[in-house]
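Reproducibility note. Readers wishing to regenerate the assembly model reported in the main text can use the exact inputs given here. Chain order matters: entities are listed in the order in which they were concatenated for prediction.
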Amino acid sequence: MSITPRMRALLALIAALALAFTVAACGDDDDDDDGGEATAGLIEENPDNNGIQITVGSKNFTEQIVLGEIYAQALEAAGYDVSKDLNLGDETVALEALESGEVDAYPEYTSTALTSFFEFAPEDVPSDPQQAFEESQDDFEQLGLVAYPPTPFSSANAVGLLTETAEELGATTISDLEGQSEDLTLYGSPECRQRIDCLVGLEENYGLRFKDFVPVDIGLRYEVLDKGDADLSILFTTDAMLFTDPDTYTILEDDQGVLPAGNVLFVARQETADEAGEDFGATIESVQENLSLEVMQELNARVDVDREKEEDVARDYLEEFGYVE
Amino acid sequence: MSVAAPTVVPLADVFDSFSGAIEFIFNERETAGGVGGEPVGGLEQIGDLLWTHVEVSALALGLALVIALPVGLYFGHRGTGELLAVAIGNAGRAIPELALIAFMAAFIGVGLLNVTIALAVLGIPPILTNTFVGVRQVDRGAVEAARGMGMSEAEVIRKVELPLAAPTIMTGVRTGAINIVATAAIAPLAGVLTLGDLILSRNVVGDDGVIAGAIVVALLALAVELALAGVQRLVTPRGLKVQRAGA
Amino acid sequence: MLDLAALLPIAQNGDGFVRDPAESGTSCVAENDTVCVGWAVDNIDRYVTPTLEHLELVVLSVGFGFALAFAMALISHRRRWLVPTFTGVTGVIYTLPSIALFALLLPITGRGTTTAVIALTLYTLQIIYRNIVTGLANVPEASKDTGRGMGMTDRQLLWKVELPLAVPEIIAGLRIATVSTVAIATLAVFAGAGGLGAEIYNDIDFKTGIVVSGTIAIAMAIAFDALYVLAQRWISPWRKVRPV
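Running the prediction on these inputs yields the following structure tokens for the assembly.
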């Protein structure tokens, strides 16, 4: 018996399929093709920006990805060649990516930058956004990075719990947990274990000891409260769920100022900023003007609650406020 | 999407990574990023993670055995349900591990019990199929002889079919165990801190920690495989060993 | 300094953009209580790219795995002493948990699809190699004798007699390897690649998303399985398709 014609045909088919997929794999990326057309509204495409490559990154939770999309799409509309590398990881991963050139820019919070990168104590973080911005500017400069002025909204970590749990504990502030925290489990992101505006601050500044700290993916921070696995969970003050379900979830007041709020600064490599010219900073500052607290929460809600894609939500924002057509 | 060409990394860097990982296993160190918190690494932490990994894997394997063995034995003995037994084996291979763990975490909850159940689901198909097939393949002559000697059906299963099917069953147990130990590595996504926590938390433990976690869990998997292979040799009746050697 | 932007009424440009919080929490996905079929149907196109990425991972890995295992089988066919070595090595590799293998490859190949494909390829080796070897070993002596009797050289014997007769066994191995790879490829997200696993991981609490991605993965596995059964029947219709 020899290889039948049938077998030959099948082998040829398999080879063809494999080849087709390999070719497809080496083909072009599925990047957004929305730049290039002249846009009405505030962002004008500047042909001088064509050919300038910018990679926009972001950290690994909804708000960050939405911000990354907004900045990326705005820069794209201004004529730059933008590629996205969102969802990098936590702040240490993002900074590493920025310094190594894997990304050219990403949005960071003043509070995170000051406490995690520049070793500020939480109580030393200025509550005035402009001041916090200026404090971090110098430190960023030393890393060869440039930070742009802050967004209108700010966000902070918060110790959250189910409202009914809060009532049972009789707690309205974090300090109220004193004496009771030994019986409570706290759930947070993996990097919370090493952040002063997270577990480290709660243990050192508030002096709280918890029954257990369990690291879980940021995306599960409400899930673990719902299921009763967590007594306490680290939430963000800009979370949509705090506003769609205000009777279900509560956050404890940070009476000792250990969890400072931070506005977002778009941080970029100095070389990128130099090469990109004036439009870079101008576009960034313009597009973030309408990011008030309510708008940011709305954007978060559309992704976290309504499960829309971050890309679409960012586009809606840009269209709504007249940045793109 | 493009398939990036692999960057060529100097061999020296690779050795550095691995020696850093070995260092991580034995000595504690500061966390990789951030400003403080508990130190990471060291034998105690590795030991804790290893213990949890073994614990959840053993519980899951036990649960899988308790469910799959009796069912496989029963139907194998009766001779019915072959299509189903084989289909379950095939289906088991198709279960996407991440979807299973995420499903557990989102629908039912995080924690040891839930992860154990999820892992058991991965262990049941190979054990069930192999038990069934193993029993079916037992020499009918031996079974008839046993019945002729007056054994009850239960005794036939226990004294004839089970021992003779043991090698095949053990193959299934080995496959199931490997599936379980491997998937237990992503249990941290559902709140159970196994060795996978080191691999998944690069920002906290650093590159060294990630590789350390990979090394330890790989060694664990190999150890489990060798141990079960040893058990398989023990339970293979001498007669069958001769048969197999000739195959 | 006064934050003027915050003082400007949003109504200027974004009138109605910010919805009343109480209203937005009531749709099926907002509740996230159960699987939202309606949402899934409306948004199915967001799963197209991840599905294609996943498909790519599977096809490349099984393709490379087959090529590699086949080469190994050819090499060890005339040098029987290599068989236990190859079997042992591929077996050891298969034992390694996938995220561990990804982590070990990272220093060498970096994050991305390449690393994922390398690891997934390595995982297919054990079953494909084993099945090719078993298939060749199960060729009846009679057939080989006939071939030799016809004056075939060893090489002709291999390609015209032994391999064709081993095809069902080989396809059985490919079948198992492909189905397994579809499942394991969900973990490729941890190597920095995409696929259905990335879709799950990036929205890890979204019940409907998990169910849709998981269902697509299982459907893909079933589809491949059926394709292999058909191929097996088409190539050698005289043979009963053995359950694997």
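We highlight two features of this model. Confidence is low (pLDDT under 50) at residues 1-6 of chain B. Residues 42-78 of chain B form the longest helix (37 residues).
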